[in-house]
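Worked example 4.2. Below are the chains of a multi-component assembly; read each line carefully before continuing.
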Amino acid sequence: MEKYKVKFMPDNREIEVERGTSLLKAASQAGIYIKSSCGGKGTCGACKVILISGEAKSDRTGNLSPEQLSKGVRLGCHTFVEGDLTVEVPQESRLQAHQVLLENGGASLLRETSKDLLDLYGLHPLARKVNIRCSEPSLTDNASDWARLSMELKRVLSDDKPINISLSVLQSLPENLRKANWDLSVTLTDIDSEYTVIRVEPANERPAYGLAIDIGTTTVVVYLVNLDNGEIVDKQGSYNKQAHFGDDVISRIVYAVDSPENLDEMQKAVVETINNLIDDILKRQNLRAQDLASAVVAGNTTMTQLFLGIDPRYIRLEPYIPTVNSTPSVAAKEVGLNMLPDALIHSYPSVASYVGGDIVSGALATDMANSEEIILFIDIGTNGEIVMGNRDWLVSCACSAGPCFEGGGILFGMRAMPGAIERVDINPETLDVKLKVVGNIPPVGICGSGLVDCLAKLRKAGIIDRAGSFHLEHPSASARLRATADDKEFVLAWAHQAGGDKDVVITENDVKNLIRAKGAIYAGIRSLLQAVSLDISMVDRIIIGGGFGNYLDIHDSVQIGLLPDLPPEKFEFIGNSSVKGARIALLSQKAWSEAQELARKMTYIELSIGTTFMDEFVSALFLPHTDLSQFPSVENSF
Amino acid sequence: MEKYKVKFMPDNREIEVERGTSLLKAASQAGIYIKSSCGGKGTCGACKVILISGEAKSDRTGNLSPEQLSKGVRLGCHTFVEGDLTVEVPQESRLQAHQVLLENGGASLLRETSKDLLDLYGLHPLARKVNIRCSEPSLTDNASDWARLSMELKRVLSDDKPINISLSVLQSLPENLRKANWDLSVTLTDIDSEYTVIRVEPANERPAYGLAIDIGTTTVVVYLVNLDNGEIVDKQGSYNKQAHFGDDVISRIVYAVDSPENLDEMQKAVVETINNLIDDILKRQNLRAQDLASAVVAGNTTMTQLFLGIDPRYIRLEPYIPTVNSTPSVAAKEVGLNMLPDALIHSYPSVASYVGGDIVSGALATDMANSEEIILFIDIGTNGEIVMGNRDWLVSCACSAGPCFEGGGILFGMRAMPGAIERVDINPETLDVKLKVVGNIPPVGICGSGLVDCLAKLRKAGIIDRAGSFHLEHPSASARLRATADDKEFVLAWAHQAGGDKDVVITENDVKNLIRAKGAIYAGIRSLLQAVSLDISMVDRIIIGGGFGNYLDIHDSVQIGLLPDLPPEKFEFIGNSSVKGARIALLSQKAWSEAQELARKMTYIELSIGTTFMDEFVSALFLPHTDLSQFPSVENSF
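Applying the procedure described above to all two chains together yields the following structure tokens:
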């Protein structure tokens, strides 16, 4: 096979690839991650690159204009290497890694729900470290090394669970015992049925650490947790590198099942994402991979299966069957996580193909399964999942809201990170705009909470009608409101304000996408209420988790019909409930076994059966809703 | 690093190695296995090679004669590549693989002790295959694939043990279920506490198979067993490729602990030995590696630790501590065996550093732990281990007999295979010799049973005295009895009879080695008797297992003082008891748990404590013994 050199600019990074390799793939091999919302189908146009020199062949140009094409702009996914090349990857085509903001704004995260829960469950982590001292062997006391060690462990642990040892620890046990002069720190996994020794080192007072990991479709978050006292020592988040293969779970599945290599590539992408986060945290804390003794992972069903390399094909085909809900615990070395090789990785159980471990984890973090009150838990991530119930019953559903609120499918959409518009004020007379931007820097794009706010304000200012259509003939005659070749848009920030060469805008297409997303979530809530014949007024509390969690404005959300019209005091935020639940399970065997129970107990309502959801969805495609009686508090002024 | 080509003749196999590589190592890399009894120390002279052309440097020549040196003969272990080379590896320097004879001579093996034992324990193998039919999923019956499969398995297996599934089977489960149209054959490991699914395939009537494996220091034997009915389907044995690193466990340990790479090399050598045997058997039986669902391995403590890659260093250093006696079960993929990747490999537990799993396995095969009679079980392999007792008590010891009876340390020593002298008759007048050779072909060497016979006949003919010294002034003046430069020897077969260019002889050095070996075993028996204050007459039965098992002549053995002077009807042979015990455990969970109990129950007597063994050993360095009253039946004619 012929090989050619491809140089990526402005990185000035050069690699060699086989003739016919797509530029998307080549960039990935060079460690440059390009957005690919549609998963390489050539439809989304997110993977634009610019040919500087050399030969490449494109078999699809999507919606690129002749002008763009003449400037060398190509779709990375459908342009293939035919000779030595130099390619520019513009900033907007890149996945921004290591930049995810972790709940450092909202006050509510300080409530630390999970702290209270830990008091409730008690500290009994899934791995632990104990210090012991063994007697030295002699001709008359010639028990084997392992017999000696395990007898002393049995004494110190003083319970009846069998104690095992991993082969790799056993292989080097003799030297490690003697180097430590029989004075030892022993790290063990501690699960329901057994202990397993996974590390033996000279006695020391350093704690064992664990990881709580939230694998979101868009974002991955890792907490480093001290297993001795339960404290969160550090945290870090970044984009999920799988985004390179598509924005949503469906495009990921389509890509993954194309060949066994693709599934493997997808598995490695998320593992690499997590390992990069681990490496950063370890460096910062001056720790080593061997200090990481356990992990609990929470992700939706597709993310969990992809993380474990399990064929996800039937998740997307009717009747939507996951391979497994109760995933087996696996060793770190089996999946490639940079931890103690025999550390156990526990994945939160799923309920169904579209109500995954992240929701079970979140539900655990809300403690709703022990509540007398009826709780409605809404997790707005790339999908939108809803759980309702109390200690007697739990129902759940998924409503395919799409990734809008995480910035996906929105022209200037982005995650809540520095540069993201999080609040929008529009003067209804002049259409002048005031923005609040994360980090108080020039705006780059707009995040979920900003989008909700923007939608409410666009409506309030009369820029859009109840169906989301733009009214270009607005009396203000502001230059901000304008038509483009194929859309209408409103300028939130002029290019010179944004510090770039483009105006930051919201388009009619964005607005329609947002209405579909909010409509899906509201329809999901309504469908769940109908499934159990409850009125919304009977719900005692609404807990909101997920990507934009703490930043969301309740008033705005009700105005646009995303959330039901209930008194503000019934709402609360829990932030990233998925990683919170993962931490609790990591620290408490009782919580972990309750999580299994919770997953079994949660009744899944499949919204695609019957017409309820579709009827509700269509009714919800207005601002706030077709049936205004459901939103009595919404101002009727417009 | 400079690299050079080394060509091996007459194989005409060429490889490239780094400058300074020993010819021993280079040959191994070329797949040519050279004997190295001393483990590469340059003392045994077994690894002779002949330089044909090119440059090599020797830093040691051992006992090579100037004449040999001038002919290009070198020690492979201490000759290093300095340029392109051509090297001849003579036949006598090669390990002969795949030629080990499996008990196809003795009638006693037809007794099939293990068959009776299986009746006793009942068939309940450590892995099994079941056929099930699952219902297809639908929108209203949307349990996960694994939930569907495990529920049906639970119904069919109808017991309460948890059912797990290996990650690798889970990864491809969805396609496998649907390709089979939900009509399935499921292979499971079935151990004490749980089932684990290790294979899912379309329904069929083929059985699952298991392997019973005896890892001897010298020889490795594999039985293929049908797990449905317990039948031995095929068997094969070969030399242990570790022999390349030394004949006995001590030289193996010395080599293995020199560096982590060496330990790894040693582990791979035995795995490669087993895999070659597996491949031959699979080919012959038209099976695939995936059909192999379980294995039970029996080996001495060092062999077991090396097989699992466990540092064996402290086995050879006082106080002789093994790393582990109860070795954990491991997956085939963890050690590299060519089976179902998640098939469990169970290793027989050891008692101490020098009473290993092979002895526990053998003791199980004798059923002595359930016997009312007192049984003395002697396993004569590369070491010599002894177990004595009945259902109430068991004691054991190891007596470092060395590998003589397997052909090691004997000039023309060899295993019982075609060409091995197994019976010797010497006319006391003329010293004419009559031989019985395995396979009725010209003699190549002499095996264990032949050596015992030879020793008795040499003594009877007055060729050697009670201490084993040669009497060159024998009245017959036969040319067979002669002195060489540094030894004395007796010709068993002339070169022209042997079809080679060398006379087949037994030397005084061989005889002394044999006396030490038989003395060690007899001293071990005596020490064990003293440890429990029993007289030999109180032993009801003596069971002999191990390498030369069935071929041994009881009369000869008593004549030379290898076995105690008891009536012949008290003796019986069990053959390779180690592989027999492995098969029973493979087929019966009850037997396998009894094996663990047996290992715990067996009291180990360390012969190096106190002077009993040494005193007994010194007394036993005569034919038959210093104390003739212990051998009343031995003819006093000489």
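Take a moment to check your reading of the output against the notes. Chain B has a mean pLDDT of 90. The longest strand of chain B covers residues 48-58.
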